[in-house]
Write the structure tokens for this entry.
Amino acid sequence: MNRLVIAAIAGLIAAPALAEGDAEAGKKAFNKCKSCHMVVAADDTVIVKGGKTGPNLFGVPGRQAGTYPDFRYGGDLVAAGEKGLVWDEETFVAYAQDPRGFLREYLDDTGAKSKMSFRLKSGAEDIYAFLVSVGPDATN
């Protein structure tokens, strides 16, 4: 294989997968999240002004769980990240729908807890698509 093909394959593996949801619908659905979460770029550009109860969700797609700097995560979410949990569309959607249930299954621990008590009934795939569309790897 030539180097260009190898580089292209490596880039696809390293990049977060394209989201299947609707980014425009996700922008609107994010209103359910912004009481706890904000989306603020690394250069401090405010994409969505929101609360600080939850971590900044800028750059979540492709990020190891429980690793946003200077945020005090619950121990079980940190443990999931240390076990290899990286946010992709599938894991983000499952976590948003049932954070405690997701962690209990992921960690195989019936006592696992999540500091996030909100359960998103629908639209998580759209919110994920929105986060991908405004993330550091977005091409706008």
